[in-house]
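input
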Amino acid sequence: MRMLTRTLAFLVVLVCSHAAFAQKAFVREDLASDAVRLEETLRKESVGLSGSAEQLHRQGMAALGRGESAAAVRPLAAAVAAAPKEFTYWLDYAKAAFAAEGQNASDRYTLQERATTAAYAAYQHAAKPTDQATALALLGDIYVEREIWRPALDAYKASLERSTNSKIQATYEDLREKHGFRILDYKVDNDSASPRVCFQFSESLQRGKVDFAPFVAVSGNGTPAVSTEDQQLCVDGLKHGERYAIVLREGLPSAVGENLLKSADYEIYVKDRSPQVRFTGKNYVLPRVGQEGIPVVTVNTQKVNVEVYRIGDRNLLATVRSEDFLAQIGTERARQIADQDGVKIWTGTLDVGSELNKDVVTAFPVLEAVGKLEAGVYVMMARPSLKGATGTDASAAEDDSDQT
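output
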């Protein structure tokens, strides 16, 4: 019976200890692992230093008080090695390592890494909420010095959750405004048949079944079509040639527990699509007869400049073996074909229909233009003609070319 009582008492102690550890809601698994390794490193590096943990700590603090942070690092590290469960020793070692400059950039980086880990270890070993807050505030300061913004914000927030501090609160709010969840940029997709505007955020948007429509206001549209993906929010259903006033409202939620601090207003103009040309497929195998033409898709242009090249026997094998054979050809490969591998057999202009901002398909009559085709590989290059550009926003677009 007495043995059973002892066993129960032991189990209760285990459960209580685990519960106390579990109360620390701020968790960084990477730093927790680093703290274990740092403790072992400090133990090895402290071999040869004599004195108790208290004496070593006192020696280090005296040096730190004189502004000799580099001299304070080693005795404070030895104090940690001698008493690794002492919150104060970890905290003061972190302060010294953070303040020490090091002899070079590599030393400085190592000291900052150790200061980060030691501050987190101090938080882990702190029992009082005020001590935890102190360690987390120091961790935030170190992250700020290293310009690692998101962990800095998380550390400051966790510190304030454990103990209010007006100075830390002001620091946190200023940092959140500059580096917290915010809108970074936006881009209007003008050249799509269904244009939209997409806003880029600094953090991922809140996941799950979240209705973002109430956080987006579009002039003349009471129920805007909104889609999100990771750090991007897009407003769909816009029209070419139209202007929109768009507001992203305060409170728009993120996945990091922060909401948009204030509303943001945007004046958006959706331009007409740029003049462009493309082919409907990757490649064609042309018979000697019966082929009416190669379909060419154009947007906002009435003329297309076309060049046709034939790759002869000398370069045929290398072309067939190349990665881009029977695929769309990039600008560099097209230039290589024009300058080295191919022979131009036709150049001219294809007249096409044009309906503002709409895709128009026109067949290019290969046999009519080129005449008899010999067996081989042919490359057709097409680009919109500047003289044929249409639309109110038509501009130079001869680089928007496709090849097949």
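quick obs: The two ends are 89 Å apart (CA to CA).
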